[in-house]
Amino acid sequence: MPPSSQAVAEAAAFRSFANGYLREIDPGIRIRHALTDGPPAPCIEWNLRSRRLAIRAEILSPSLCGAQAFGRLWTRHLHEPRWRPVAPMRALQELLGEAYARTDEGRGDTARERELELLGRVLDSYRETARLLDLAERGAEAETGFIAAERALVFGHWLHPTPKSRQGLTTWQARAYAPEEGGTFQLAVFGAEASLVRHDSAVARAAPDLALDLLGPDAAKLGLRADEIALPMHPLQAEALMLEPHVAAWVEAGRLRRLGAFGPRFTATSSLRTVYAAESPWMAKFSLPVTLTNSLRVNRFAELKAGVAMARLLAKSEFGTRHPNFQILADPAYLTLHSPDREESGFETVLRENPFRDGAERGVATLAALTAEPLPGRLSRLEALLRQVCPEGSAARAQAARTWFARYLDCMLEPVVALYDGHGIALEAHQQNALLDVASGWPERGFYRDNQGFYLSESARPRLLRDAPETGAIASLYFPDGEIRRRLAYYLVVNQIFSVIARMGHDGVAREETLLDDLARRLEAMARRMTGAGRAFARSVLDGPTLCTKANLRVRLSDRDELASGDGTGNYIDMPNPLMLRAARGEAGHALAS
Questions:
Q1: Which of 104, 166, 410, 524 is deepest in the core (most CB within 10 A)?
Q2: For the Aerobactin siderophore biosynthesis IucA/IucC N-terminal domain, which residue ranges apply (predicted)?
């Protein structure tokens, strides 16, 4: 009998929390031990001193660079020899308590309050996962295409303690506004006095005109006054804004009118707050009154300006013409209302180009969906692709997997590092911001999205300011190259590329050691070919004893909003570099052989 949705969700909650604990708090002790109720199996054991307990977790599928897949769990008191089976959620609670005891967050008057708040978020995430599993089980086999992949993230981020936590979104609202449920909705449109509106555009047409394009033929029905500009808004945000005193004052003064629902029916992408309609030339990214994982999802005005500035800068660079297998989705326009006593009014709206229409959406998928843990009894999206391109058997499929991986690096690794090498621009290219065109089964083209995710090199500042002077006035856009190398290593390599390697390893289609070797050879070739920042980046990934990784668990332990924490430096820690460990193993093996 297959496990229930609740059992699968509980195991998933433990998996994501325990992998974060392993990476950020305690790597544990690796053992191989035969317990009384099962055969010998690789395990990891944690001693929880504050709880006077030990937890042992069976490793069903290990990974050198990604998440471990856990099986049975046991616990024992430190003064007793006997191991007893323990439920995943109970084991998770013990790890959570120990995590607080081991960090600075475990002391002080608010420690218990934070611990209980995080436990509540974990339970919220578990319940949401169970609910989505029930929906997925009732649904059809996985569809293909851009929006189908956006809706496929049932388990969420594999290395986050609360991957499906959504505070501020009710179950009935999720039916319309959450990506997994496929709901559709029209945008709520406001008519605003033109003098209130701040906007900019990096393309030939002004942002208010582009906003009318977003609404399609319905734009003619708005009934705008001569001095008004239309502001489309997410319905959830529109409801929240109507309760704000500064918005109520504008409405009362006749400077702002809520016009109603107009335009095509949009649906949420995986980020929830970016919406998509297949017939619209634009996607729109809104602020939402919802806290997802760590953060309240708010568009900052500096990010709006950065999107326009980067669209102008990238257009001047002609990078796209030199790398036709990679496209950066521009966020070339924004609209908002100016409130004198606040930096953001709540109306901040980003317009993003939409290349995924008129059939171009077929076969485009976010890396997060391709590498996600499959639903029970199903293949991962990545394994399904490999079976499509190579149905012959496991031996041939292993070679096909290496070819697929090489073509993926062509579409993602090579252009992202080339952009940094040639232009001093680095991308926050994590697996949810990275998409692949795999309509043929093979990676043909890569895409990058997100105006929050640009890092400009301090060493390239004179050249970049010459092409885009406005970048100099945008907070937290320029970084030292050492910090850029660290963050690019996390987003591009640890988060994205390692997720592909780990997925292929868990699916049994290729050995992780082989793919890590292939990655190392590619980085070596890039280091020889490049001469600037790209070469230094490739060498840092190859030669450094550690790589940067996101401290998702520690951020949650401190109850910190990572999007509101300055330049974000405190959101990262170091982890052992699997490429260096692989090199050490190879040298040891060579020495033994000789």
A1: 166
A2: 146-371
